Structures are given as C-alpha cells and as structure tokens.
Inverse folding.
C-alpha cells in the first residue's frame, strides 16, 4: 500500500536462437570523473561536452537528443500517440541502503509542449529494462505533477497550487529504504530562489495505491541498485504539440558509491527489438553485430574474447578504438552470418579486470518480407469476410473494397470485446476496438509506401481484458508454419494468449474451435517483441495450415488495472523439413512440439528417442515430403521409428 504525507521535511520512516557473448576488459587506474565522498553531492553531468559518457538512450517514437553548452535537450515531434525519449546514466549506480537516503535532482531550463508533455526525473532499477518505465519518478507538465513507481501507477497525479512554471525549476527525489519499504519524497522548486512549488512524501509498502491511484502488475517496492534517468514523455494532445525539454546539471548523492563502476554496453546494431532485419553475409557483404563498450577507466585489448552460440566457439572479437576516449566499438569477425527467418536472442556480458560485470540481452529477427504477416487490426468483417492481399491505404483515405480500412466487423462473431469500452479509431471507426498508431519500428511495407509523412501508419490493437478475441481468415499455402505474435506488454509481468483454429462456421457466434498453441508473453514495456507459439510448457511448436482457414487470437490473461497489451501483427514463416522432425504431445489431440533429443538417421531412415518412464507420450513425424512409418518399437526405454520417404 501507499502511505502519503504532505508537507515539507523528511519522509516518514518505518522499522528463438540464443547467443552468449563474453567480453573481458583490462583496466588502468585513471578516473574519468572525480569521485565523491560517501553521502556527498556530485554533479554527475553538467552537459558541457558534446560527447556523452556512460548514458544509454531509448527512443519510443521519433525523437532527437542534443547535448552541449551546459544542457541536454530532448525533442519529440508531434506524433499523435504516446512517445518518449529516455536517457539513463548506466555507469553510475545509486543503491538503496537500509535507512540511508539516496537523492537525485536535475534542473529544467525549459519545457515547451502541451499539458500532456512531461519532463521526468526518475530512479530506474538496474535489473529493469528502461522501456518498462518502472522505478520512482517525478514528472512535470504545464498543468500537472505526477509521482509514482511506474508509468500509469501514480501515488500523486494532480494540479498543485501554486502550479510550477515550465522553466527554471529543479526536480528532486529522495528515496530511503527501511524494512523493505521505500519512502519517496518529491520536490519541485524554483532553481534560483529555492521557492517551493511542490513537496510531498509517500511510503511505498507494496500492494495497491491510495484511492484514485492505479496499481501496477506486481505492487512491489523497487529495491537495490538504480540509475538517474531523464525523460521527455508525451501522452499526446489534440491536436498534438511538439515537446521539447531542456535539462541541466544532473546531480546525485548516496550513502556509498563503488570505486569501480560497471562497464556500459549500448548502441547495438541491429537495435534491440528490431524486426525484419535483412540477413547478412555472402560475397562482399559484412556480417557483424557491432555494439559499444564504455568503462570509467581506459581499457586495453588482452586475452581471448569469443562469441558463443549454443556452445559453438566462433572466433575472436576485434575492437575498433575511438581515439582519446575510454569508448570502444566491438565488431564481430566479418565471416559470421545470421540466417533468414530467425528470432535471435543475444546475451552479452562485459566484465572488467576487477570482476565487475554488466549483462545485456538484445533481440532482433530476420523474418522475410515475403513471409505471411497478418496485421492485428485486419480481423474479419461482415461475419467472416476477409481479404488475402489487402491494399495499404493512408490515414484519412476513404474505404476501398480491397482494404480493411473502414470495414465493419460483427461483434461477437468477427471480434469479441467484453468491455466494448474502446472508441472507434480512424482505421475502423465503426468498431468499438482499440486500434492505435503503433510504436513499433517502421517496417519495409510502410516505408516503401511513403511512411508516416504520407499518412501510412502502422497500427496495433490494444487488449485490456480477458476474453477479447479476433478472427483472421486467410488462404494459406499448404505447409508447416511457425507463428510469432508481435506484442508489447506494459505493467504486467506475464500474459497468456491462445491461438485457435475455427472449425465451425466463422460467420456464427461461438463456433467449434481447436487449440493450436499458446503465446506466453512477458513484460516488454513500450518495446514490441516476438512471442513464439508454444505448447503448455513453452516449447516452440509448428502448425500445419492449408487452404482457407480461420485463426482466432484470444486473450486469456486477466490484465491489471494499469496493464495493457498492444498487438501489432502475427508473422508466419514457413518451416522446411526435408529431414523428418519427431514431435510429441501429452495427449493425442494435444500441442505437438519437436523432441530436442530425437536422433534422425537419414541413411538408415530411422528416428530414435528416449521415452519417459511414467508418462505417456504421443509421437508424429513432420516432413516436407510425404513419409510413411513402417515400424515403431520401444526397447530399453528407447523408441525406434523406421520410416520411408514417398516423394511427391
């Protein structure tokens, strides 16, 4: 629960493919910034230099960041949707220690934008991705002050009197951990005179917030190490207004600081959550995964460094040095390739000579633009109607026969929305479905059409309640398909959605359906990620499709009051399997997933796999060419299947 105390003074106190990459750093003893004594206040960055050290940035939507001459300016152009630009000082941890305050503050030279545009000072936990917008924050717009522990989870959101101006103010947070709770004091003062516009204290004891606030998915106080974070966030105005925030003098004090700060990894290429990345490699092409390393002390290349993918050592990594700095660009050997139609999860760990480590996980996919993509907003209309190759039309265009824009779905048939609370969008205004402009990376389809400058927006469907569902009929080429759901989950640690085949008449309500698999999502914040279709224990599965079929996407999870899931699309790459693949399920009509331990001998045309002793399994062979099982026998706990390839 939140306990709130207004006034000044101290706060109240209480009693896909997965890669692993290791990089080692050798250090010398030269500090980049002067160290501070325990509890002393230090300007972490005065923004005098145009070169930024130790900061990691995240832009959701199109934003620009400029530093130099004593200020850090964040600008978000008018986009008509939620956007933000965030920067976290990753190499300066501020750790909550029992009973000892951590203070951080920043000057706001100016904030230009409407009432939905906020300048934000935050303490962001080290163990939380920046895009989740978790941690403790103080946010200021032209008519509102917000204090909270996650965006959408506020312990204060109102217009104080007097309201602070939009220029020459200082935002300050003081955090103190005690007995597992965190007291939060938030202040807004006039920078020069110190005149107080806002000063309130709260205690985060977990659980739900006070009346009028919104609880997040966990309701758990944030503890441990965190980082000073600055942000410009726009919740959109009507009409939208460009937001510009100019910060100066980021400061902090804490009870104790490490003398050796951890390395920082950033600027991954492809960027985290990138989609439809062209595969690299081949004659004359460079195939790499460059990123940058920064440490508070200069380091040199020494000893072996290697890239490991599924246990396979792929050779050393080279450094590109940036003259006169502690920054290094890491680049993989140019012969390394990454393949088509793969969802990559890359784990990177950098460790300095003193054993201080930083770990980062980044993801991207190499799906082909030729793969079948079903847009979330392109659900059936008119009681089962569909378009196989829909025309792409700009926002504001009149409905056309070959496009989904403007089509009207039948409630309870083409879509189910238990709350029916969402207002219509410009895409399908007659349907009470939350269709919003997507915050995902621009895709080749929309870029080639002219992009947002010409009104070609990507859209996402907002899910906020269990039981919401959408039917998608298409004509499928016969084959086996993987399925990935492109999803963003905000303020909820886990979500579950089901993919079903509609076996009955898709033009009627409550037709017969067959479960095809689960999308087991997790919190991604405002970044979209690919969630594979899996069985009940999370093993990726492949489904057979052919001819006209209707798929149903159904939200299963109950979402918290501040939680929301945005679905952009489903992508269905075809899976080739000339060599048979052995799959199994717990029940005969269950969800079949590939057996990782199966051994296929194409010369002997046999498949062998160890079978569990006490639980029955049902097995099937999947292959691109027709196969016939000639014999299946179990001997000594091992299943041996003899098969024959029949050809086409």
């Amino acid at each position: 629960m939140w306990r709130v105390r207004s006034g000044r003074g101290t706060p109240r106190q209480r009693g896909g493919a997965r890669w692993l990459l290791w990089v080692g750093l050798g250090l010398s003893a030269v500090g980049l910034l002067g160290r501070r004594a325990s509890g002393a206040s230090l300007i972490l960055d005065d923004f005098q230099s145009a070169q930024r050290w130790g900061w990691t940035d995240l832009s959701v939507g199109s934003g620009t960041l400029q530093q130099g001459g004593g200020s850090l300016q964040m600008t978000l152009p008018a986009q008509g949707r939620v956007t933000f630009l965030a920067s976290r000082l990753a190499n300066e941890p501020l750790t909550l220690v029992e009973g000892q305050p951590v203070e951080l503050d920043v000057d706001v030279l100016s904030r230009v934008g409407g009432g939905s545009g906020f300048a934000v000072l935050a303490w962001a936990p080290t163990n939380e991705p920046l895009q989740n917008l978790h941690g403790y924050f103080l946010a200021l717009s032209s008519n509102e002050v917000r204090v909270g522990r996650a965006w959408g989870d506020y312990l204060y959101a109102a217009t104080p009197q007097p309201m602070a101006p939009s220029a020459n103010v200082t935002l300050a947070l003081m955090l103190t951990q005690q007995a597992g709770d965190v007291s939060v004091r938030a202040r807004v003062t006039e920078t020069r005179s110190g005149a107080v516009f806002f000063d309130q204290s709260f205690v985060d004891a977990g659980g739900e917030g006070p009346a009028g606030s919104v609880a997040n998915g966990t309701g758990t106080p944030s503890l441990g190490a965190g980082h000073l974070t600055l942000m410009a966030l726009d919740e959109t105005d009507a009409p939208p207004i460009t937001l510009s925030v100019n910060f100066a003098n980021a400061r902090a004090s804490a009870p104790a600081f490490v003398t050796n700060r951890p390395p920082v990894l950033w600027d991954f290429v492809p960027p985290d959550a990138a989609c439809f990345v062209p595969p690299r490699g081949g004659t004359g092409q460079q195939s790499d995964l460059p990123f940058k390393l920064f440490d508070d002390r200069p380091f040199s290349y020494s000893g072996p460094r290697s890239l490991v993918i599924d246990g396979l050592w792929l050779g050393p990594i080279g450094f590109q040095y940036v003259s006169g700095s502690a920054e290094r660009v890491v680049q993989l050997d140019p012969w390394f390739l990454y393949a088509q139609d793969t969802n990559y999860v890359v784990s990177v760990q950098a460790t300095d000579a003193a054993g201080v480590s930083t770990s980062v996980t980044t993801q991207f996919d190499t799906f082909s633009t030729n793969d079948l993509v079903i847009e979330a907003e392109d659900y059936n209309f008119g009681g089962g109607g569909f378009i196989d190759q829909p025309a792409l039309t700009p926002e504001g265009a009149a409905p056309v026969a070959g496009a989904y824009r403007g089509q009207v779905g039948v409630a309870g048939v083409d879509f189910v929305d238990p709350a029916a609370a969402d207002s219509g969008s410009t895409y399908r205004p007659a349907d009470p479905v939350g269709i919003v402009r997507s915050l995902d990376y621009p895709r080749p389809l929309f870029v080639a059409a002219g992009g947002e400058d010409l009104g070609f927006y990507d859209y996402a469907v907002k899910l906020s309640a269990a039981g919401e569902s959408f039917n998608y009929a298409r004509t499928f080429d016969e084959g086996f398909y993987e399925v990935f759901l492109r999803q963003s989950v905000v303020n909820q640690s886990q979500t579950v959605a089901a993919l079903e085949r509609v076996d009955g008449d898709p033009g009627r309500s409550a037709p017969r359906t067959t479960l095809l698999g689960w999308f087991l999502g997790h919190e991604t914040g405002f970044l979209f990620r690919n969630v594979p279709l899996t069985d009940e224990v999370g093993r990726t599965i492949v489904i057979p499709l052919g001819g006209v079929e209707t798929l149903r996407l159904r939200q299963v999870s109950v979402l918290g009051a501040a939680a929301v899931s945005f679905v952009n699309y489903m992508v269905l790459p075809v899976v080739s399997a000339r060599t048979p693949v052995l799959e199994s399920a717990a029940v005969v009509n269950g969800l079949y997933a590939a057996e990782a331990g199966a051994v296929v001998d194409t010369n002997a045309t046999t498949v062998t796999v160890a079978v569990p002793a006490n639980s029955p399994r049902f097995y099937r062979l999947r292959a691109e060419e027709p196969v016939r099982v000639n014999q299946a026998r179990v001997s000594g706990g091992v299943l041996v299947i003899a098969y024959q390839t029949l050809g086409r």
